[in-house]
Specification:
heteropentamer; A: alpha+beta; Rossmann fold; OB fold (Dihydrolipoamide Acetyltransferase, E2P); 2 domains; 6-stranded mixed sheet; 5-stranded antiparallel sheet; 26% helix; 31% strand; elongated; C: mainly alpha; MetI-like fold; 12 helices; binds adenosine-5'-triphosphate; binds magnesium ion; cell membrane (chains A, E); ATP-binding cassette domain-containing protein (chains A, E); AAA+_ATPase (chains A, E); transport (chains A, E); membrane (chains A, E)
């Protein structure tokens, strides 16, 4: 393992327990994403790794064989990309990118060569001499990345580096960023609260909730086998079905669904894309709203479950609001999770 | 009434007041400076009278040194106060900003209390603690009222600096003094220029302090006052006023165009 | 790092001491029987009584002028700030720059200018209005800027457009939307105006007549010619008046600044 | 009734008592006013078109200049005739109200152990460093009177101010204080241990303030000068002003001066207890009168010279 | 027609031609969305209708039979919801909602009754007495809507009322807003640059581009039959295929596709969801990146067309980057558009 975190916790002076004791291991060249809702402790964990925040007593941070728990930031050799980019407005693009190298005391010529190289890699040639203020958001993001890259950090930390951008640019830069990170084989931790972003970039995603890592795994594992209701909801947009489970049957207001196995005492979840309109389906529901979304219609349904149930329907037409429809949900697409975990 | 008309109407009181009591008197002042025996040659006369020139130079020198000192002290204190939270910080901040509206006369008096014959320093170092009436006393007086002004401007700017900038520099391996040099000072530069300009302008125009200290060190406002009170040499007083106004306004204007408008309350 | 911090703290404390110590001295001197002999000579309110007798009228005059100054700057400054905020541009910048001249031109020069032009209108020259004009000149830019910065921060245009689509004409909008939302700026500006007016000396010294001594003129007077204890007692009274105002002003501008972020 | 006097400072020549008496006995309210002679005159010149002041009080030479500037008008109050010739303008444009003799007003306690100086020349000694004060000779009449006094003491005359200029330049090495306004209180409080000032101010401190004060008539000699008053031309309240001037020259008025150690302009007998408090007459013999008209004539030129030559 | 716009153009003082002469008709109770990229003139058009901006000479705005072209804002009786909401921070929720009624000079009692009614409709009861600053973004949005509703405007204008909200809240409020507008049968114009939002809310969508209305129609019509390449791209996320059309054949670098009809001189477009992995498909391509997006994989492909081609692939697994795959695109899913229009 390149980076080993043991027992990392953080209580802020005010008493907020931002992070409960957490362990995490990251392999060489791996990209791990910290995904979770606002306030769950993502930034806190990242800043502790960077050395910008000190963890509560008992923590241990190892980098390969070095114990860096008490090393000051400037000696940790971690690169960091900030949400606000934190580019130095008083330096040009070149100046920013070369700053870390200058701090390492490299000779001028070597710095120049390395800066040129990074500028080329990040396709920043046209802007190299510009002032930071003369760059667009996307260009700034690339400079911030280049600046963090340049000193060849052992570990790159990125705190929501895309969240200040608008949606279109974000998608594009997300792909570029993923490509760059892989190209260099950089070990990186990427913080985000956007599920798509986390999945698109990371090898493994650590889903965080209220100061804990709720589950860590590949995007597919998280999506297909969420271990807690929180992960099911946050990563897969699953809807709780509610109702009552008796053996292999789920009794709902609109009908009864079959389950793959007896699951008494558990809770059932389903994704909107797994709810199908089926002429002879076991559930009855009333259409309350229909939205055409291009590739599909999103249909809001009442009466099937206690809450509104959504169905993503592909096809050339859709039922009208007010109509009554029948629905089917395949037993294997129903997620069964422990209710105590569902409380998380 | 249309919106445009209403907005125009809102400017009417200001226009009337500013014309009557600012524009016209200033024009009158300029005219008055040319009504002496020397006519408009009075400005030429100022430039060829060593006494006026030395005073001008002295005034500028004192103001410049005060500006530098105030910037150094207030930047140090301002950065310290923005970046550290501790018990007593609020009190310290109040102490440092309270003299903001002390008139120059009061400040002069404060300096007498510190460095006069009866002052604190003379009590501690008898015979060696009298500085109130020297140019150093004047300097301290100007420093006294410049510190709060500069401090407020610097702190306002320091609070706006994104803490991530400093953190970014540190993750790139910069030690504290490099962070200060490469990140903080450049980020504060516009505020420092603005605050410095205000300190300079205030020192240039300060009259009350010199008046209270009543030293025989001449600064331009004192000379203007003397010209006015020495057989009412109104033309010369007006000409010197015009000169002083142009120099200080010019400095402020330069600073403002460099740094955008920033202003701290002051008397 | 540690040493750097200690040094910073030292400078901060030194600066604070420099500003605070003489004010304490002056407060003490104002209630000491004989400052030359020190506190041992005993404490007394006698000097304050003397000051009151000699200068009470100047204190009231200053308060009166400060309030009048506040009214005038409100009437002139608030609408002007609104107009300037509504029409940003080169011209507005120029107007702002012009009314800010009294901050750059020494008070003595301004006073001289006023005296030159209006000194011969005796009714005016001998009335408090003459001093008032000087104070308004000096404080107006503070009011305008204070209000303007708050207005600039609240997206005034959109708020007004909101009111317009709901049927409000320009005058209604000014009183329903502009003024209430500029209140923090108006308050901060008002406190600044009052504080500065009470402390104004540079202009007033030239503008006043013997019958119309304001507080700082009286202070200068007492510094020049009264015994130290009386001067100190007078300064003490000045502090008592100005310090609460200053604290309120700092609180109000901090609030206005928070708003404009 | 209100009237405005320019340069009637409460801490000088006991104007405080005079203003109080004016209020109580003549019903005239006059605010006290801290100017100096020069300031009073220039203010009057500046306000010539529309005067603020009704009466003015200043050193004699300033009074003479005031005529030239046309800012005063003749008025002969009751008792005018009793003022000796030479101490009044025959037309009544100015007239003396009291005399003073210039010397050194010393706060002995503030000398930090140094002996009380006896001569003008003593003041340049290092032991009096930062202890000497004199009012600005270019602006205040006291200052000018001091300059004339030292000038004569060192052999100059009203056409040759060289000795005075040299003296002030020597004194400059001792960092003197040069206030522009009456500084009685500063001597009393010890801020200025030695001030060029009049006997009356020094005696008032010596006998009325708790402390150790002395008046010194310097060994090289000095001058005595009258202080005069005028009615301002186009005074806003001429009738009140005339009443005030009448009062000041009346017996009651002159008596107030005498109680304040001032030698009155009218030949009013000094009360015995007051007379006993003055320095002996033998000392006063060193104080001479000068040609006030010539002194007035030389004032402006000297002021210029002082400003440009004394550093 | 309730609202008739004729010849509306706008040239800003700086010379920007924000709007080219535009006609638009809106029927009673209809909800029309103005959809387009940033800077295309949506806000300008809306503000001209509101009276907040004056159109260039020659414009005509009629409301039923009134010519309101030169009426000042405050007399037009249009309601407006601003992107920033523009709620009056100095008034409470009630104060804001009642302001328009107060301006109409209604008696106090009548105002109160109407405000209560609107508050109930917008489910704002719990917040009625609160200060504006004590509301969340979503609550503010509802107050802004209620305020604009209250005086019963003839027309409601909404300028990106949801864009200040975060994604989750936005989806929810979009649905609520659509329901409210329909419930009241309000005639409304809704500006947005979000395609989903436009489609979810509007009866008809006017797609704008560079100061013009490029196409106006129902969401389905725009999606299924875009008339310009711009609309195809902006509304349907269609990708230009490039290549060369000869008769009914499209020649591409990776192979040749069949078209439904001879289309010489035209341009071909396709949507990512219409590109299928097919073992014997006519196109060959190399996989460059694969992103797991939960419901599907997004696969970036090179070699098939000149640019990168994307394919949305549903299934349990996806090819790996570097593999070569074959693709099929059904002829009826290829959009054929005029190239001169494609230049728009
Ligand atoms: N300096 C601080 N002092 C006190 N509490 C803090 C501090 N920084 C963060 N917190 C609290 O710690 C918790 C975790 O904060 P953190 O910034 O790590 O969350 P996050 O997951 O990064 O959220 P976001 O997505 O909003 O950035 C939150 O409750 C936050 O309010
Ligand atoms: N007040 C103005 N002065 C000059 N140009 C303006 C003004 N307002 C808008 N423009 C310009 O007019 C064009 C259209 O602007 P408009 O605000 O209508 O676009 P929009 O479609 O609403 O864009 P967005 O989605 O960014 O809000 C843009 O090029 C813009 O820069
Ligand atoms: Mg965070
Ligand atoms: Mg817009």
């Amino acid at each position: 393992m390149t980076l080993t975190l043991r027992n990392i916790a953080k209580t802020y002076p005010g008493g907020t327990r931002a992070l409960l004791p957490t362990d995490l291991d990251i392999a060489e060249g791996e990209i791990v994403s910290l995904l979770g809702p606002s306030g769950c402790g993502k930034t806190t964990l990242l800043r502790i790794i960077a050395g910008l925040e000190t963890a509560d007593a008992g923590a241990e941070i190892r980098f390969k064989d070095d114990d860096i728990t008490h090393q000051p930031v400037e000696r940790r050799k971690v690169g960091m990309v900030f949400q606000s980019y934190a580019l130095f407005p008083n330096m040009s693009v070149r100046g920013n990118i070369g700053y870390g190298l200058k701090m390492q005391g490299l000779p001028r010529a070597q710095i120049d060569a390395r800066v040129d190289e990074v500028i080329a890699l990040c396709r920043l040639e046209p802007y190299a001499g510009r002032a930071i203020t003369a760059l667009s958001g996307g260009q700034r993001q690339r400079v911030a990345l280049a600046r963090a890259f340049a000193p060849r950090p052992r570990l790159l930390l990125l705190d929501e580096p895309l969240s200040a951008l608008d949606a279109a640019l974000r998608g594009q830069l997300r792909d570029e960023l993923a490509a760059l990170l892989r190209q260099f084989g950089i070990t990186a931790i990427f913080v985000t609260h956007d599920q798509d972003e986390a999945m698109a970039i990371a090898d493994r995603v650590a889903v965080m909730s209220q100061g804990r890592v709720a589950q860590i795994g590949t995007p597919e594992a998280l999506y297909r086998a969420p271990q807690t209701a929180f992960v099911a909801r946050f990563v897969g947009n699953s809807m709780p079905l509610g109702g009552r489970i008796e053996g292999s049957q789920l009794h709902l207001p609109g009908g009864t669904l079959a389950l793959t196995a007896p699951s008494d005492g558990k809770a059932a979840f389903v994704r909107a894309e797994d709810v199908r309109l089926a002429e002879h389906g076991p559930l009855t529901a009333r259409v309350t709203a229909v939205t055409f979304l291009g590739t599909h219609y999103r249909i809001a349904l009442s009466g099937a479950t206690e809450d509104t149930l959504f169905c993503l329907h592909q096809g050339q037409s859709a039922p009208k609001p007010g109509e009554t429809v029948r629905l089917a949900i395949a037993p294997q697409s129903i997620l069964i999770l422990s209710p105590e975990k569902a409380a998380a | 009434m249309s919106t445009r008309q209403f907005v125009a109407l809102c400017l009417v009181p200001l226009a009337i007041f500013a014309l009557t009591f600012l524009a016209l008197p200033l024009v009158r002042l300029v005219l008055a400076s040319g009504e002496g025996e020397a006519g408009w040659g009075i400005y030429w006369q100022i430039l060829h009278t060593p006494r006026y020139l030395t005073t001008l130079v002295q005034t500028v020198l004192v103001s410049v040194s005060v500006t530098i000192a105030a910037l150094a002290v207030s930047t140090t204190a301002g950065l310290f106060l923005t970046r550290n939270r501790f018990r007593g910080r609020a009190v310290l901040l109040s102490i440092l900003t309270l003299p903001l509206a002390f008139p120059g006369v009061v400040v002069g008096f404060m300096i007498i209390l510190l460095g006069g014959r009866q002052g604190l320093f003379n009590a501690i170092f008898p015979g060696h603690g009298v500085f109130a009436y020297s140019i150093f006393g004047l300097f301290l007086g100007y420093l006294y009222f410049s510190i709060p002004r500069v401090l407020l401007t610097v702190m306002a700017a320091a609070e706006k600096i994104d803490p991530a900038l400093e953190e970014a520099a540190r993750t790139l391996g910069a030690p504290s003094h490099r962070v200060l040099r490469d990140v903080l000072i450049p980020a504060l530069a516009p505020a420092l220029v603005a605050a410095g300009a205000i300190a300079f302008a205030t020192a240039m125009g300060a009259f009350g302090t010199a008046f209270t200290l009543a030293t025989n060190i001449d600064v331009l406002p004192m000379v203007i006052y003397t010209e006015f009170t020495l057989s009412a040499n109104i033309a010369m007083a007006a000409a010197l006023s015009v000169l002083l106004g142009i120099v200080t306004w010019g400095m402020l204007f330069l600073a403002r165009s460099f740094s955008g408008s920033t202003i701290a309350a002051g008397g | 790092m540690r040493i750097g911090k200690a040094l910073q703290l030292a400078v901060t404390l030194l600066a604070a001491a420099f500003l605070l110590v003489p004010t304490i001295q002056s407060v003490l001197a104002g209630v000491t029987v004989n400052y030359f002999q020190g506190i041992r000579s005993g404490l007394t309110l006698e000097w304050i009584a003397v000051v009151w007798e000699l200068y009470a009228s100047s204190i009231f005059l200053s308060l009166g002028i400060a309030l009048a100054c506040l009214c005038v700057t409100l009437v002139i400054g608030v609408p002007a700030a609104y107009a300037l905020a509504r029409s940003p541009g080169r011209l507005s910048r120029a107007v702002e720059e012009f009314i800010s001249l009294p901050l750059a031109i020494p008070g003595l020069a301004l006073a001289l200018a006023l005296l030159q032009l209006y000194g011969s209108y005796k009714g005016f020259r001998m009335s408090p209005a003459f001093i008032l004009v000087g104070h308004v000149l000096y404080t107006l830019p503070f009011m305008v800027r204070s209000v303007q910065s708050v207005l600039a921060a609240i997206d005034l245009r959109t708020l007004e457009e909101g009111a317009a689509t709901l049927g409000a004409g320009p005058v209604r909008r000014f009183f329903d939307v502009v003024v209430p939302n500029a209140l923090p700026g108006i308050l901060a500006g008002a406190l600044t105006v009052v504080t500065l007016s009470i402390g104004e000396f540079n202009l007033t010294w030239m503008l006043h007549t013997p019958f119309l001594k304001t507080l700082p003129v009286g202070l200068a007077d007492s510094y020049a010619s009264m015994r130290l204890e009386i001067a100190s007692a007078y300064t003490l009274i000045f502090f008592v008046m100005i310090v609460p105002l200053l604290l309120a002003m700092q609180w109000a501008s901090a609030r206005a600044q928070r708003m404009s972020q | 009734e209100d009237a405005v006097c320019y340069n009637c400072p409460p801490e000088w020549a006991d104007w405080a008592s005079m203003l109080k008496a004016l209020d109580e006995q003549a019903g005239i309210t006059m605010p006290h006013d801290n100017k100096n002679s020069g300031q009073a005159l220039s203010q009057m010149i500046a306000e010539k078109a529309s005067p603020v002041a009704d009466v003015a009080y200043y050193g004699v030479t300033t009074g003479i200049q005031a005529i030239k500037e046309g800012v005063v008008q003749p008025y002969k109050p009751a008792g005018f005739d009793e003022i000796p010739d030479g101490l009044k303008d025959p037309e009544g444009n100015w007239f003396a109200v009291h005399y003073g003799t210039l010397g050194m007003f010393v706060n002995v306690d503030a000398l930090a152990g140094a002996p009380v100086p006896q001569c003008w020349a003593d003041l340049a000694k290092p032991e009096y460093k930062a202890m000497v004060g004199y009012l600005d000779p270019a602006s205040a009449f006291v200052g000018y009177a001091g300059a004339v006094a030292v000038n004569q003491a060192f052999g100059g005359d009203l056409t040759n101010f060289g000795p005075a200029i040299k003296y002030f330049n020597d004194l400059a090495a001792n960092s003197p204080l040069v206030p522009k306004q009456t500084s009685y209180a500063r001597v009393v409080s010890g801020e200025i241990p030695i001030l060029f000032d009049y006997d009356f101010n020094a005696y008032r401190a010596k006998y009325n303030e708790g402390g150790n004060y002395e008046f010194v008539l310097p060994c090289e000699g000095t001058i005595r000068v009258p202080y005069v008053m005028s009615l301002v031309a186009n005074a806003p309240h001429p009738e009140t002003a005339k009443k005030a001037l009448d009062f000041i020259l009346s017996d009651e008025g002159q008596a107030i001066w005498t109680n304040a150690y001032l030698k009155p302009a009218r030949p009013v007998e000094l009360p015995a207890d007051v007379a006993g408090r003055f320095l002996p007459d033998s000392d006063y013999e060193r104080a001479v009168a000068v040609d006030y008209a010539a002194m007035a004539a030389a004032q402006a030129a000297f002021g210029e010279r002082y400003l440009s030559e004394v550093k």
